[in-house]
Amino acid sequence: MKPARLLTALTLLLLLAGCSGSKPRPSPGSRGSASSASGRWSDDTSRSQHSRYHDADDSVPSGPPPDVSKVPEPVPKVEPRSLYGNKSPYSVLGQTYTVLPSARGYVERGIASFYGSKFHKYKTSNLEDYDMYQFSAAHKTLPLPTFARVTNLQNGKSVVVRINDRGPFMQNRLIDLSFAAAVKIGIWPQGTGLVEVRAIDPSQPVQELPPPQDVKAVGQPGPGIYLQVGAFSDVANAERVAQRLREANFAPVQVVDVQIGGRSVRRVRVGPLPDVERADDVTARIEDMGLPRPQVAVD
Fold this sequence. Notes:
The chain is an alpha+beta fold. Helices cover about 15% and strands about 30% of the residues. Strand 7 and strand 8 (about 160-165) form a beta hairpin.
């Protein structure tokens, strides 16, 4: 492939690969393949999103889920940064993202989604083939590739994934899991779930990662979803935004004092919210008020 063609492919992949972030819809079968007249696999990354993928909507194979107990988890190892998929900053759908210089020490909680048949065997952002039956994932800012342990905070199940794709670019989503990874930790068939993503440093000795301290126990409430509308050093500004939210009938609205870098910051948050669907709805309503898109926090 010529250098100019590769650069074009990279730009399109950042926009297209692994960015659905929505709940896959069941279909009569897996139709995510694209092939040439000769029957050989074909993925023309220079084409537009509407013509590149065989399916318009994502889906999962019909029938029972795969037996993921027989799928080996990727073994973390030191790898060079991918030549493609690490451009920084980059923009998608009007939002700009900066790729982290390193995954070391990265731990974040948020909402996981997954992607399936539509993208199966198509190129990921670093020009590898996406295999929905292996344990991989897409992330907006972690370097490619990155190994990470993803834990479902609602049942304690976890899986090691190799992040080799960009996305999800739907609001409020932290990570897009492969279909197999979603099955492994119970994100499938619901479509979304609350997770902790903890990067693994392959250069360090192998050690068992401790489970999150507040994983939901049977019969007990799990971590809640909060929407952070802003963080203010000025008390009056924080209260002004909080009052707007209360007048719009968002409840409960909290103003939380935290210390960041030795200074006091007031975080304005809405929540806890009962589920992901409610969080998505409230996010849209807050944006309609002219306020910035809130950030998801899982506590």
